[in-house]
Write a sequence for this structure.
């Protein structure tokens, strides 16, 4: 089957497995890619600095290819370098993109990157040649930030469109007297003062050790929550660590893995329990409605509620009550101390026994006088 169009991220493919791009590697990859897939048209796009970063021996050939439009370079000063130009070309003609880049900063704009077959990766294998396989972009912090920004813009656009449609459907507003317009203007000027007088509300504290907003979309999060109730098992892939746990992803939803749910007792670091890229089953512990967050773990308390915490507190208090008899047992020997003083009282009779012979000496002296 002949596919219609492909756009090649030339700078990315020319640098695959190398520190600097190579025109020879790019030409070899494009020829092998065309042979494997038989596209009707292949457009190769490179960065504006491509010809200055390749080997000097290849620069003349690169300039000729650029002059002949065999290789395309984006306009000077384009935002996002060549990536923006590549994706816009592919978007216009529904083309397949050959690149090992994930284009994370564009996930909010070009969501078709996640469609099956729209992104293909390639890598040269020694002794075999180039191997091309379908791939999906890797999501990360940059991707989530771009997606959230795009969702906010879409929401604002939708609100503006709705307001315009309502105004058009309502028709022209009847003209009101100048006095009424002046009254509304005065009221509008007073409103900001009234709002400023109100004390700012402090944001409510969220549980989760200072965990940030997970950035899960409302529609996707609600569907995930219905399909995976608390206590159920879900298969997720660990994406990154944090100081207080780790983050995994399942069905497009970011899941928070706190340290307390990774092992019993809890590990000191998340890497002691899981590793980046690891895929395994995790048990849903709770849903944070305000933040659209999901907490899960490897080990889960028996009741998934406050009963476990109460049981632990009761277990800790039980040994404290049994400690009282031990203190009483230590004090018992102190009361028997008076028994040791008994021998001291018996010393008095001994002194008296020694004095007795001294009193008997008097009769002996009297006997001598009589003689």
């Amino acid at each position: 089957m002949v596919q219609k169009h492909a756009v090649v991220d030339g700078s990315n493919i020319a640098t695959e497995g190398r520190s600097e791009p190579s025109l020879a590697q790019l030409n070899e990859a494009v020829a092998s890619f065309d042979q494997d897939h038989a596209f009707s048209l292949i457009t190769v796009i490179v960065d504006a600095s491509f010809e200055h970063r390749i080997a000097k021996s290849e620069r003349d050939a690169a300039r000729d290819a650029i002059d002949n439009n065999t290789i395309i370079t984006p306009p000077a000063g384009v935002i996002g370098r060549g990536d923006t130009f590549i994706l816009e070309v592919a978007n216009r003609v529904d083309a397949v993109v050959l690149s090992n880049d994930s284009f994370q900063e564009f996930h909010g704009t070009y969501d078709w990157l996640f469609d099956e077959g729209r992104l293909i990766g390639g890598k040269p294998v020694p002794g075999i040649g180039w191997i091309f396989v379908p791939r999906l972009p890797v999501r990360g912090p940059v991707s989530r930030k771009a997606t959230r920004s795009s969702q906010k813009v879409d929401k604002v656009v939708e609100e503006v469109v709705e307001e315009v449609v309502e105004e058009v459907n309502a028709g022209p507003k009847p003209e009101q007297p100048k006095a009424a317009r002046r009254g509304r203007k005065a009221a509008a000027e007073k409103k900001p003062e009234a709002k400023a007088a109100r004390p700012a509300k402090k944001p409510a504290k969220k549980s989760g050790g200072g965990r940030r907003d997970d950035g899960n979309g409302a529609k996707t999060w609600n569907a995930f929550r219905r399909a995976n109730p608390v206590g159920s098992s879900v298969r997720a892939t660990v994406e990154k660590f944090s100081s207080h746990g780790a983050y995994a992803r399942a069905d497009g939803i970011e899941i928070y893995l706190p340290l307390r749910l990774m092992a019993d007792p809890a590990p000191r670091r998340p890497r002691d329990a899981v590793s980046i890229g690891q895929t395994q089953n995790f048990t849903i512990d709770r849903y944070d409605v305000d933040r659209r967050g999901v907490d899960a773990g490897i080990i889960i308390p028996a009741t998934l509620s406050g009963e476990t915490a109460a049981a632990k507190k009761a277990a800790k208090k039980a040994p404290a009550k049994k400690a009282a008899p031990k203190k009483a047992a230590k004090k018992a020997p102190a009361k028997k101390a008076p028994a040791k003083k008994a021998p001291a009282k018996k010393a008095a009779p001994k002194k008296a026994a020694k004095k007795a012979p001294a009193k008997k000496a008097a009769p002996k002296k009297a006997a001598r006088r009589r003689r």
